[in-house]
């Protein structure tokens, strides 16, 4: 019987070390509503990184670019190429939307993986990638839905709704369902990937620290980058699909 | 995840022996842990009684242990809020739109325009290089035409000069010839005269000579 208190002590000890705080949020009250402050704080940091680096690199553009300007030109060309491939010739007005989507998600994910957020201790919950919260990913998926609706309506007017009975009217319920599954899948794909990766890394670190979590961290960097690309590509693909010409 | 497991197990133990009046969050109400309700035989009943008593003591020890811990432990255990939608959603949406406009003004539009202008300038330079080769051909043709014209001029002038000089030369030749003929005629005339004179003198001499000859030849 002396074994039991001992094991309960170690259980409590383990619980203290493995402080996995999933679903614990740092709440702020704004008006009558609550916000997840940890998401807002990290998103402000991401925005500051994006705006700051863009401002610094792009002032005084030279014909033969400097290293920073070259990098940003590469990123812009990449985004333009992505938009052009998915949307077609009229891709110009959509570059800021797709570009911001890609950059925000990419920098959010990598900031969650690379920046040492644990240094800053919050009263409740912890700082991590802003995209590990369902609010963020849905907040990114809904404007995508609005965007592809807007693209279709502005290009084709009310004829846009003819696409619901293409290629055959039997597919009407499926086409309507698509309008709900598209933002759902976008948001959940990103949310699930980022949250799960964070969880795996944290659990591994709490169980087997030192070198073992490192390959998983690299995998996390890789997949989070891919997820940003996928989100942006799908957004562009939906927009392009809505703007597709008459068959 | 581990927290949720821990939370659920802790709720189990605290619910049975540490009812909290402060929190309104729902608690797991399992209380069969210490009172298994199974119909069994005497022997097994005794075993189960001993088991349940050991379980009871475990629960008592655990409860006692956690009872020692401050009540804040119980208050910390909250439901894991993964699908917690609140004002964060529109806040992030607004932030994203602001970021889009700001990034467009700072980065996408200026750098995009700069890159497009640079591309257009390079294309123009390439095209202009191709055009000058055509211009060069034109200039070459012009030069050839000028050379031909110049050569024609030169040959025409040359012919003209040739004609004039030959004309002059012939003129001078004719003059010279005339002079020479005149002198020749004079010289011939002189000769004729001399011949005449000589013949005349000879005639007289011949007469004298013949007289002498006769004198000499004919005896006196």
List keywords for this structure.
heterodimer, A: mainly alpha, 7 helices, globular, B: mainly alpha, 81% helix, 0% strand
How is this fold's topology laid out?
The complex is a heterodimer of chains A (247) and B (220).
Chain A: H1 3-17, E1 27-30, E2 33-36, H2 37-58, H3 67-87, H4 95-114, H5 134-156, H6 172-207, H7 213-242
Antiparallel strand pairs in A: 1-2
Helix pairs in contact in A: 2-4, 3-4, 3-7, 4-7, 5-6, 5-7, 6-7
Chain B: H1 2-17, H2 42-68, H3 72-76, H4 88-217
Helix pairs in contact in B: 1-2
Keywords (chain A): ATP synthesis, CF(0), Chloroplast, Hydrogen ion transport, Ion transport, Membrane, Plastid, Thylakoid, Transmembrane, Transmembrane helix, Transport
Membrane topology (chain A): Multi-pass membrane protein
Transmembrane segments (chain A): 35-58, 94-114, 134-153, 190-212, 218-239
Question: In words, what does this structure look like?
Answer:
Chain A has helices at 3-17, 37-58, 67-87, 95-114, 134-156, 172-207, 213-242, and strands spanning 27-30, 33-36. By secondary structure, chain A is mainly alpha-helical. Chain A has one domain (66-243). The longest helix of chain A is centred in the C-terminal third of the chain and has 36 residues, at 172-207. Chain B has a domain at 88-182. Helix content of chain B is 81%, strand content 0%. Chain B has 4 helices and no strands. Chain B has helices at residues 2-17, 42-68, 72-76, 88-217. The termini of chain B are far apart. At the A-B interface, helix 1, strand 2, helix 2, helix 3 and helix 4 of A face helix 1, helix 2 and helix 4 of B.
């Amino acid at each position: 019987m002396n074994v039991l208190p001992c094991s309960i002590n170690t259980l409590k000890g383990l619980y203290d070390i493995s402080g996995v705080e999933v679903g614990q949020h740092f709440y702020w009250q704004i008006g009558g509503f609550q916000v997840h402050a940890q998401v807002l704080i990290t998103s402000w940091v991401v925005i500051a990184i994006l705006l700051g680096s863009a401002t610094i690199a792009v002032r005084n553009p030279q014909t033969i670019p400097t290293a920073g300007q070259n990098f940003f030109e590469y990123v812009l060309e990449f985004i333009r190429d992505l938009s052009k491939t998915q949307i077609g010739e009229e891709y110009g007005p959509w570059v800021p939307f797709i570009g911001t989507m890609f950059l925000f998600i990419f920098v959010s994910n990598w900031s969650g993986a690379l920046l040492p957020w644990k240094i800053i201790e919050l009263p409740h919950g912890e700082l991590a990638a802003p995209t590990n919260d369902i609010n963020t990913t849905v907040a990114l998926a809904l404007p995508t839905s609005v965007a592809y609706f807007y693209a279709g309506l502005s290009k084709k007017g009310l004829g846009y709704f003819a696409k619901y009975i293409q290629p055959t009217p039997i597919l009407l319920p499926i086409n309507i369902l698509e309008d709900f599954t598209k933002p759902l899948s976008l948001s959940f794909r990103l949310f699930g990937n980022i949250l799960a990766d964070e969880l795996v890394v944290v659990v591994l670190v709490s169980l087997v620290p030192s070198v073992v979590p490192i390959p998983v961290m690299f995998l996390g960097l890789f997949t989070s980058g891919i997820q940003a690309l996928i989100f942006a590509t799908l957004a562009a693909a939906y927009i392009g699909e809505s703007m597709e010409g008459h068959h | 995840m581990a927290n949720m497991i821990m939370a659920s197990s802790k709720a189990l133990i605290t619910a049975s022996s540490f009812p909290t009046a402060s929190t309104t969050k729902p608690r797991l109400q399992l209380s069969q842990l210490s009172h298994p309700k199974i119909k069994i035989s005497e022997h097994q009943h005794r075993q189960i009684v001993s088991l349940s008593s050991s379980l009871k003591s475990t629960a008592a020890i655990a409860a006692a242990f956690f009872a020692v811990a401050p009540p804040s432990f119980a208050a910390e255990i909250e439901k894991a809020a993964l699908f917690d939608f609140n004002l964060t959603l529109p806040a992030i949406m607004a932030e994203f739109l602001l970021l889009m406009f700001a990034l467009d003004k700072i980065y996408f539009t200026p750098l995009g325009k700069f890159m497009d202008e640079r591309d257009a300038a390079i294309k123009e330079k390439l095209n202009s290089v191709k055009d000058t080769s055509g211009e060069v051909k034109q200039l070459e043709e012009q030069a050839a035409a000028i050379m031909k014209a110049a050569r024609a001029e030169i040959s025409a002038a040359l012919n003209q000069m040739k004609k004039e000089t030959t004309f002059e030369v012939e003129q001078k030749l004719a003059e010279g010839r005339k002079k020479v003929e005149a002198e020749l005629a004079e010289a011939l005339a002189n000769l004729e005269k001399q011949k005449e004179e000589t013949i005349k003198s000879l005639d007289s001499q011949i007469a004298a000579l013949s007289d002498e000859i006769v004198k000499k030849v004919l005896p006196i």
